[in-house]
Amino acid sequence: MASKTNVMFNILFVSVAVILGNVLRSRLIPISNEFKRSLGYPEDSLLNFTELSQHYGYASEEHTVVTEDGYVLTIFRINRRKCSKLRRPPVILMHGLLQSSDAWLDAGPDAGLAYLISDACYDLWVGNQRGNYYSRRHVRLDPDRDSEFWKFSADEIGLYDIPATIDYVLKYTREAKLNYIGYSQGAGTYLIMCSERPGYCDKASVLITLAPAARQTYTKSLPYRFLTQVISQTEDALATTGVYEIFAKGSLSQEFLAFLCKFSAISEAICGTGESLFDSFHPGSITNETLRVIFGHFPAGTSVHNMARYGQSMQTKRFQKFDYGKERNMKIYGEEQPPSYNLSAVTVPFVALYGNNDHLVDPKDVSWLISRLPNVLEAKVVSDPLWNHLDVTYSHYTKDLIFPKINEYLLKYSQS
Ligand SMILES: *[C@@H]1O[C@H](CO)[C@@H](O)[C@H](O)[C@H]1NC(C)=O
Ligand SMILES: *[C@@H]1O[C@H](CO)[C@@H](O)[C@H](O)[C@H]1NC(C)=O
Ligand SMILES: *[C@@H]1O[C@H](CO)[C@@H](O)[C@H](O)[C@H]1NC(C)=O
Q1: Ligand 1 center to residue 73 CA distance, Å?
Q2: What is the mean pLDDT of residues 298-320?
Q3: Rounded to an integer, what distance in angstroms lies between the CA atom of residue 183 and that of residue 352?
Q4: CB under 6 Å to ligand 3: residues?
Q5: What percentage of the chain reaches a pLDDT higher than 70?
Q6: CA 345 to ligand 3 centroid distance, Å
């Protein structure tokens, strides 16, 4: 365990980097991968989804989804080449806040869930939500020039991105239904869709949620609370200085983390400690190798507005839409308080897997959610008492601790 001064130093270091990176906002002049290779960046951190999966013997396809409101999302389909026949129906796997599809590969072929699910011969589609580096495009708006591009939060991701991704996959595969796995924001936005888009909720035969983010009332992480609350309070001020996008890939904060974390000798000491302080300590769960790779793909970028909404969600006991303040709420919603999402509309058979040591989505909030859903098949606490939030994508214990339960439900709702 690092000493107290060490820990303080790390917090300071990472905070300063993050704040500087976003206040300055500047995208660095793109640093070429050749140059990074010569500096000793791990190869996996420099590859995109297609290249990375190919590197480990998987074939993947790139697909483009256009949402009703014009956002252009890149999604991937990944296949284990040895599968002669894929199970039906298709499966969608959706990442969490500030991540991209690549998060499901970062832990490597023995632990990344995209690999494990493909290995079991499911027809796996890996999504990307608006604003990250694979979905930073629009039919009309330019993300670098039009601030309107960044006027979205989980509310709009649930309203548009999730249904568009589902529609695309169903149409392409000519299936009537699919199975859906959502992690954190990738699960919360499915719930939002169920509430707001009648007819969509039951397009999945089963919804498997991993640390689902609905309300965040009991979130324990102080750095996460602090960060999102500061952003929430400064959203308008940031807008006047032209800052609408945050934690983008290629920004100073992401490049700095990637640079810092590439050194194997200090990756665990600094990056591991920083990650643990943000979430919680789970010694040995994320390997040094993975720690060196993560920050090539994380943070993947989102809107200030979305981060602000998370700040709000820690100040209320409701799972509700963005709070614009009484006056604007009245104009937008017709009431002073933002409307709550209708959890009775989440009629899809629902499974939850979550950790008791999760400091970002607290088990108390998951229990609150589960108690309000009409069709819960199973809600399981991961057997390892130290299981935390980021373990879902980055732990090397996924194969033993969460994959078997995911596979159990996928199998039950699939045909071979
Ligand atoms: C991934 O990298 C390959 C090879 O460099 C490139 O052709 C492809 O367009 C990239 N895909 C995305 C979505 O960036
Ligand atoms: C990871 O790196 C740290 C610091 O160099 C080292 O103490 C630790 O033993 C390494 N862990 C593993 C699992 O190799
Ligand atoms: C919530 O959803 C349920 C199930 O679809 C529906 O019966 C109910 O009317 C909805 N409630 C509101 C307030 O919209």
Answers
A1: 14
A2: 96
A3: 10
A4: 342, 344-345
A5: 92
A6: 6
DSSP letter string, 93-119: EE--TT--GGGGTTT-TTT-HHHHHHH
Q: Is the pLDDT of residue 37 over 90?
A: no
Among 114-123, 195-204, 274-283, the range scoring the smallest mean pLDDT is: 274-283
Would you give the DSSP letter of residue 270? Answer: I
Assess if residue 7 is contained within a domain: no
- Best residue among 194, 335, 342 to mutate for probing ligand 3's pocket (most ligand atoms within 8 Å of CB) is 342
- The number of folded domains in the chain is 1
Residue 19 counted as domain residue? no
**pLDDT band, very low/low/confident/very high, at 31 (cuts 50, 70, 90):** confident
Whether residue 245 is contained in a domain is answered as yes
Instruction: Give me 48's structure tokens.
Output: 């995109």
CATH assignment of the domain containing 165: 3.40.50.1820
Q: Which domain holds residue 183?
A: 36-412
Integer Cα distance of 106 and 112 in angstroms:
6
For residue 22, the model assigns a pLDDT of 55
For the question of residue 358 being annotated catalytic, the response is yes
pTM of the model: 0.92
User: Which of 288, 290, 394, 397 to mutate for ligand 2's pocket (most ligand atoms within 8 Å of CB)?
Assistant: 288
| Ligand 1 neighbour 61 (Cβ under 6 A) | no
Asked if residue 408 has its Cβ within 6 Å of ligand 1, the reply is no
**Nearest to 226, CA basis, from 357, 298, 314:** 314
pLDDT at 86: 94
Query: In this structure, is residue 200 part of a structural domain?
Result: yes
Measured in Å, residue 136 CA sits from the centre of ligand 1 at 15
